[in-house]
Amino acid sequence: MRTIEKLLIFIIILLVLLIGLGFLVGKTYVVEEKEGKKEISERGTQNRTIQKLVVKKEEGTPSQKPLPNPPNIIKGIYLTSWSGGSERVINRVIAKSKESGVNAVVMDIKDFSGRLAYKSDIPAVQKYGAYEEKIKDVNGVIKKFHENNIYVIARITVFQDPIFSSARPDLAIHDTRKVSSSSPPGVETLWQDNHNLSWIDPASDEAWNYIFAIAKDAAERGFDELNFDYVRFPSDGNLNNLRYLHFNEQIPMRNVLRRFFANLRQTLPDTKLSADVFGYTAIMYENDLGIGQVIEDAYEMFDYVSPMLYPSHYATTFLGLDNAAKHPYEVVQYTLNHAKKRLAVMATSTRERTVIRPWLQDFDLNGVPYTALMVKSEIRAAEETLGETYAGYMLWDPENTYTWEAIE
Questions:
Q1: Does 403 score more than 80 pLDDT?
Q2: What pLDDT band is residue 27 in, cutting at 50, 70 and 90?
Q3: Which of 89, 179, 354, 392 is deepest in the core (most CB within 10 A)?
Q4: Pairing of β 151-157 and β 392-396
Q5: At 3, is the pLDDT very low, low, confident or very high (cuts 50, 70, 90)?
Q6: What is the dihedral of CA 248, 350, 111, 203, to 10 degrees?
Q7: What burial class does residue 277 get, using C-beta atoms within 10 Å of its C-beta: 0-12 exposed, 13-18 middle, 19+ buried?
Q8: pLDDT higher than 90, residue 382
Q9: Quick one: 245 exposed, middle or buried, by C-beta within 10 A (0-12, 13-18, 19+)?
Q10: Distance between CA 367 and CA 349 in Å, rounded?
Q11: Which CATH number fits the domain that encloses residue 265?
């Protein structure tokens, strides 16, 4: 037993001496960050790594930088956030891009549901549970698209937002039929559109800050552009029963949106921003369509203005046609002619970099199937009408099943 005890004492003394020697030669342990991986390394006096002790698994893809040389002419397609979170869909889009020339994707990061499509540290998003992790690694998705020279646009649905309006009914639109002295504005009194979705009051500055926080987060992740949709007052549902808590109905709706646009631009002065507007905004003069959208107001504050030129959404007899949906070239040409002329009138006062880049239809509606020839007609109309100012287009299909042969 004594022999064993002596041996143990000897070993302990030896270990103490070795540790002391390590300190004498200046050996320390440091944590390094290398390409997103944390490494604990043992360093000597020459400040060189002697032995790597621990390597932790990479914690997600770091934020990216926008493409250094983005395409001048966009050939883009829309992707839902579910598609943006699907490796299979992403790989298919990349493969098709090499065949068709598609060089951009517009991906939902906040859609009609009001939920952010990925985890975020934004306090309000965390507080209200306003996210659903459809995209596990959004920075990684951006990186993969960028590695294949694909321009990535983040689409943000703004004022149509059932999550935020339910969490903050004090900042939402309410239904006059539900509000009474015994039922003050609350979750139960929220107004809903034809899709049973509630809305944020477009005049609420506090709600704006929520949108701006999401936009800033997206910009910092490396999206090349931020696209804002539903930047308007409600257009469908029982509009006679709208009860606003912040909007002063004595002032024009367009004034509210103009102020929102200006604050958005001030918040993100160096970020590429685009706005989606109804196609009719280009052809209706001195008229905000009852939703606050006037195309000149968007021209002043956005890099790209994107009228939604879906022939199936126009009145059937538009331009005296038998069915506007069956005449894509005529509808797109007529609308863009007006949009182009109105921008030209503002050339001396508007932001010089403002460009018209339309949404085009690639979906069937009301019994009119959209063929490759019809999609090609839309693209040709846009290119021929905009001429030297042509900057491409974005195709919309809510199911993300595109007529690839029309793009080639």
A1: yes
A2: very low
A3: 392
A4: unpaired
A5: low
A6: -10
A7: buried
A8: yes
A9: middle
A10: 44
A11: 3.20.20.80
Q: Is the dihedral of CA 175, 178, 180, 185 positive or negative?
A: negative
Range of the domain at 28: 23-59
Q: Three-class SS of residue 226? A: strand
Query: How many domains, the chain?
Result: 2
d(CA 311, CA 368): 10
Q: Is the pLDDT of residue 353 over 80?
A: no
119 and 32 inside one domain: no
Sign of CA dihedral 177, 195, 295, 227: positive
Q: Which two tokens stand for residue 3?
A: 């022999």
Is the CB of residue 183 less than 8 Å from the CB of residue 189? yes
- Residue 366 banded pLDDT, cuts 50, 70, 90: confident
- Looking at the chain, the number of H-run helices and the number of E-run strands are 12, 14
Cα 24 from chain centre:
56
Distance CA 222, CA 352 (A): 24
pLDDT score recorded for residue 82: 97
Residues linked to residue 131 through DSSP beta bridges, in sequence order: 116
Query: Alpha-carbon distance 154 to 78, whole Å?
Result: 10
CA 408 and chain centroid, separation: 26
Kindly report, residue by residue over 71-86, the tens digit of the pLDDT.
Answer: 999 999 999 999 999 9
139 plus 270 within the same structural domain: yes
Residue 242's SS3 state is strand
The first and second tokens of residue 397, run together, are 């299909």
**Quick one: which H or E segment has residue 151?**
strand 151-157
Structure tokens belonging to residue 344: 């030209």
pLDDT at res. 404: 93
Q: What single letter denotes the amino acid at residue 200?
A: I
Cα–Cα distance list, 353 to 103, 207, 299, 347, 348 (Å) = 21, 28, 9, 10, 12
Q: Per residue in 114-147, pLDDT tens?
A: 999 999 999 999 999 999 999 999 999 999 999 9
User: Residues 217-245: pLDDT tens digits?
Assistant: 999 999 999 999 999 999 999 999 999 99
